[in-house]
Amino acid sequence: MIEFHNVEKYFGDFHALKNINLTIDKGEVVVIIGPSGSGKSTLLRSINGLNTISSGKLVINNFDIADKKTNMNKIRRDVGMVFQHFNLYANKSVLENVTLGPRLVLKENEEQSKKEAMDLLDLVGLADKAESLPSMLSGGQEQRVAIARSLAMKPQALLFDEPTSALDPEMIGDVLDVMKKVAHEGMTMVVVTHEMGFAQEVANRLIFMADGEVLEDDDTKSFFAHP
Ligand code: ADP
Ligand code: ADP
């Protein structure tokens, strides 16, 4: 569902992505690792159009992003993104944070959006916080709400850009557990993370990037089988 063909990305003179060729199929959980500045985030952001690519071809859900007929808003709806910083609406309750997108964008009615949101808050273990404001939550809880909010848009794939990097260590496990549940429900996921335990346990495939290049792309077992 995500295909990179000879993708290059320049920021001015800086060559951020070098000849990227990747195919990610429906249902895969792919973890991307690599040193800071190696292009992981740039690669992820190009998938849902937050970054343009300089050349090559990028096809999402069979739609070439360079094709004028491709609706990038639809792509962004189909491919959700969870960021390091969750950016919840501070003056809205947890429940409203989750129902807002479905109501405004998917045109769901109040009853339906609330029911779905409560199911998702249940999934992330925060149904009892539905009426709380984000400021009442820990960072880990806020990130779990952000994941519920992304899922509420019924995406076909979810991208995670270092979702636990801004969290206190004791919060990380709960967020990774939620991501594991989402993976087990069959969501296609691309995750940039340094959490190698999560990678080994949940990912079916690992990609190692350095200096804008994919240096290794292997199934998880093989990846961990050699140094
Ligand atoms: P990673 O996620 O692996 O840490 P990034 O994809 O964020 O790496 O960044 C790769 C390189 O591209 C870095 O050197 C970064 O400074 C550069 N870069 C990223 N975004 C921009 C931008 N908008 N303008 C200029 N340079 C950028
Ligand atoms: P829904 O999200 O409503 O289930 P579908 O994915 O079934 O939508 O697509 C509805 C219609 O929109 C189909 O005809 C499909 O070909 C078209 N479509 C889907 N994604 C895009 C896109 N990114 N750009 C343009 N058309 C799209």
TrEMBL record:
<dbReference type="GO" id="GO:0015424">
    <property type="term" value="F:ABC-type amino acid transporter activity"/>
</dbReference>
<dbReference type="InterPro" id="IPR003439">
    <property type="entry name" value="ABC_transporter-like_ATP-bd"/>
</dbReference>
<dbReference type="GO" id="GO:0016887">
    <property type="term" value="F:ATP hydrolysis activity"/>
</dbReference>
<dbReference type="InterPro" id="IPR003593">
    <property type="entry name" value="AAA+_ATPase"/>
</dbReference>
<dbReference type="InterPro" id="IPR030679">
    <property type="entry name" value="ABC_ATPase_HisP-typ"/>
</dbReference>
<dbReference type="Pfam" id="PF00005">
    <property type="entry name" value="ABC_tran"/>
</dbReference>
<keyword id="KW-0813">Transport</keyword>
<dbReference type="InterPro" id="IPR050086">
    <property type="entry name" value="MetN_ABC_transporter-like"/>
</dbReference>
<comment type="similarity">
    <text>Belongs to the ABC transporter superfamily.</text>
</comment>
<dbReference type="InterPro" id="IPR027417">
    <property type="entry name" value="P-loop_NTPase"/>
</dbReference>
<keyword id="KW-0547">Nucleotide-binding</keyword>
<protein>
    <submittedName>
        <fullName>Amino acid ABC transporter ATP-binding protein</fullName>
    </submittedName>
</protein>
<dbReference type="GO" id="GO:0005524">
    <property type="term" value="F:ATP binding"/>
</dbReference>
<keyword id="KW-0067">ATP-binding</keyword>
